[in-house]
Design brief:
Layout (H helix, E strand, L loop, with lengths): L27 E12 L4 E7 L13 E5 L5 E5 L10 E6 L5 H8 L6 E8 L11 E6 L3 H13 L6 E7 L8 H10 L3 E7 L11 E2 L2 H8 L7 E7 H13 L7 E6 L5
Parallel strand pairs: 7-8, 7-11, 8-9, 9-10, 11-12
Antiparallel strand pairs: 1-2, 1-6, 2-5, 3-4, 3-6
Amino acid sequence: MCCAVPLEDVEIEVPVESLDVSGEPTRREYTAKVERMERLSESVIRLWLALPGGQRIDFAAGQYINIILDDGARRAFSFANAPHDNALIELHVRLIPGGRWTTHVFTAMQVGDEVRFEAPIGRFTLHAGARPILLIAGATGFAPIKSIVEDAFHRGVQRPLQLYWGVRDPRDLYLLELAERWQREHANFKVVPVLSEPDPALGWSGRTGLVHEAMLADHADLSGFEVYVCGSVQMVDSAVPAFLKQGLGADACFSDAFTPNAQ
């Protein structure tokens, strides 16, 4: 439609059967099996789910799924794989003390177990444009960022991409080698790891402090950027007002906040 100019009044019909009231694609319920598990750190497991019969889900980079527990409760986890690489669903599961599902993943889950979920959900997706992109991830907020970045590479996006990844401990940078490989292989990508509580005994020589403050220190004027931030509610609530104060347009700030659920 961006290439068509109407010469007179027109009526446009949109089939709404595939939409819910929010305007998002209708989510469906699925049952998958655990295909592989990989311990990435003491507190993070990478999980791959396979749908029966080679079935695949169409989703946008940055969206998430809702794991459905036996009592109907939901737990949200972002797609960590890019949409073009969707033979399996990749999730990054961080252990939440007392968390029902995350504790199960770490203590009892085995390859072959069934997992029920609904998908796709969410609007934390990369927008078209020409502005350079700043990405801020807190802990496993890296998962949707990974999906977005790999999708951007696949689609040939040439806009500058700079990722600030904030964690407490360097061992929580569970896929830093992957991000550093992106940096070597793609001239338009850069990663900046940031530790909020570095242990002097570990000899960390990189950036320290709050991750969004590290980004603000590097970019005094955000008026020409797009910013995507994913992490805890506390991080997002602190970061977004600071970004806007430093010149970021409200229409150029996109966020996805999550609250760990220990029930």
